[in-house]
């Protein structure tokens, strides 16, 4: 707790005295408040003051003046001419920020308001005071920096040991259990699962936010308004699959206390299976893939074109699946009006912009006929063909087995040999190192080692993509199986789940490529 006294106050000091009483009720402040009151009586007798007031801040920070409400209130009262004298215990109680300390001391000095530091015996109206204040405030700041560094080192060592901190107040789905570890809150977990499921069904972040608001569901911080930023933080947080990535951000310094995203400046630690998962790993990985896919569809306006190729839209599934079989340009939804009657059609963007200049045989397709053809193709596939996943799955298994037994094992073996060779070179005596091509050998070994690491990363990434594709096939198979016993009506959700792309081949035929690799031709 830091305290300030001021003399010759114009008005009552009731609020300040109430604050002293309030602090006195808190156990950890009782002794300090008692000594503070005793000192206050002595100062009152010595200074012969008309009235005394108190400015007290809890010891949260001494380096940022704006986060010390009573300190700033005291400075404000000085500017209003309410204070003639400030007495404080020491320079460290006034400020632990060298720059702030000097700025406020100079400002008050210009107003003719002296500050008396009891411990150092400094009066700021004296000539030599600024030099001493600079010295003592610098020492106070250095002490704060030292304490901050010790705290940082302790926290980083804790992260290195795999201790995962949880901010339960702003984290949806978990609470602190009786054993001190995270446990799932079923009611909140349903909300998290709902967000993930709706995103995979094709809804945009804005659509999900609107549905949550309309249902009266509160955000992790208890607010009624959901934003895209909050939803994205939930969709990308690895803690929901039971893992934790530590030290994503860090505090730059103890003075500004600015938080910065860790882009490699400090090591990050990944802890697997740290706590119970709300979202399955397969589902979490699919959501990350969908996020990347949507982000890659940013708006494109090519030079010379009139129509903008829009970014991802959840409104119409066909906007990103429908293409011209003649020129490969995406189709766009257009509303025609003829004598007051509206008609919805899909047209090639190239035809919209340039007529028949580049695309001569691209037909306009009525939306109703298009949807009926797609629904018919899905019904036909479900009843007579099913999902063709057997061949593709066997291909995955063969590919993965080859990668595991051949490429990865061989590269790992060579990597171990390179590391041993580098270690042997490092242990050579200085004379042997000078006689040989020491630097060239190091460069060659390190170059090969990094190249192999890059290849291993590429193989592992490819295997991960194959596993995700296999999961997608399983989903397609399950959906197709569910459509076998009843006719299929057109649905944007089903189209997004089953279809990879649709090509308009002519005015009476389309070609549909399903996610399991099969091609189906349907009549319009």
Please, could you describe this protein's structure?
The protein has 524 residues and is α+β, with helices and mostly antiparallel strands. It folds into 3 domains: 2-157, Rossmann fold (3-Layer(aba) Sandwich); 162-291, Hect, E3 ligase catalytic domain fold (Alpha-Beta Complex), CATH 3.90.1750; 390-483. Helices cover 49% and strands 15% of the residues. The protein has a 5-stranded mixed β-sheet, with helices on both faces. Helix 1 (14-25) packs antiparallel against helix 2, helix 5 packs antiparallel against helix 6 (129-160) and helix 13 packs antiparallel against helix 15 (438-482). The relative contact order is 0.06. Residues 1-14, 19-26, 300-305 and 395-399 have low confidence and may be disordered.
